[in-house]
Amino acid sequence: MATIKIFDTSLRDGEQSPGFSMTLGQKLRVARALAELKVDIIEAGFPAASPGDFEAVKAVATEVQGATIAALCRTVPRDIERAAKALAPAASSRIHTFIATSPIHRQQKLNMNRDEVLKAAVAGVQLAKSFMDDVEFSAEDGIRTERDYLAEVLQAVIEAGATTVNIPDTVGYSTPQEMTELFAWLRDTVPGIDNVTMSTHCHDDLGLAVANSLAAVEGGARQIECTLNGIGERAGNCALEEVVMALRTRADRYGHETRIDTRKLHNASHLLAAVTGNFVPRNKAVVGENAFAHESGIHQHGVLANRETYEIMKPEDVGVLNSQLVLGKHSGKAAVIDRAKDMGFELEAGEIDDVMRRFKELADRKKRVFDSDLEAIITGNQAHTAGPWALQWLSVVSRVSGEEDPTASLTLAHENGDTATQTGEGDGPVDAIVKALESITGMDIVVLNLAMRSISLGEDAQGEATMRALVDGVQYSGNGLSTDIVAACAEALLEIVNRASRHAERLAERGEPDDESPEPLVAAGLRPQRQSNAA
Ligand code: KIV
Ligand code: ZN
Question: Which of 44, 143, 320, 448 has the most crowded Cβ, counting Cβ within 10 A?
Answer without folding.
Answer: 44
